[in-house]
Amino acid sequence: MGVQWTVSPNKALAHLRRDPVLRRLIRQIGPYAIEYAPANFATLARCIVYQQVSGKVAAKLYARLQEAVATAGELQPEDVLQASREQLRAVGLSRSKIHYLRSLAEACVEGRLRLEELSALPDEEVIRILTRLPGIGLWTVQMYLIFALKRPDVLPSTDLGIRVAVQQAYQLAQLPTPKQVERLGEPWHPYATVASWYLWRSLGDGAGLY
What we know:
With 210 residues, this protein is an all-alpha fold. The protein is 55% helix and 0% strand.
């Protein structure tokens, strides 16, 4: 399935080209070609696994988790709950991430969290609902908003890859703070997701993209 937009990608790129740095990145990188993941438990669990580790390390951890506990295709909440903590530790997950994954799985199984309902909610409400769960902070929700819920205007200003890309692309002397990224990125709205994708891509294979 191709990229799904509520607005025209041509309008997004035309808007972002007003920034000369992004205009250069768009010319170098080419068409916007973000890849989405299903808006389900497995994707949100993967976002948790990716917290605070490199993309390559996280990909290996998640592959091990999938292989060790998934019983039928994609990882399900029941898989996480039925696995022992020792099994999950053997995969290489930290105790904190095991707690976060089990808490998420419990919320899904008990019906306290209905992931299928999030697609109809505004970004702020999705953030409010998901950040009530242990270990799910703003960055994790932003990754889910971008890559699962296909939201076009998310700027993950705390993401290290975004900060490094901004420093390099804008030739800043120091790594920008999240607040500095937000200020610099104000003109990118309402297409901040698109700008973020180009910034990630500007890092090449080192971006650790979800």
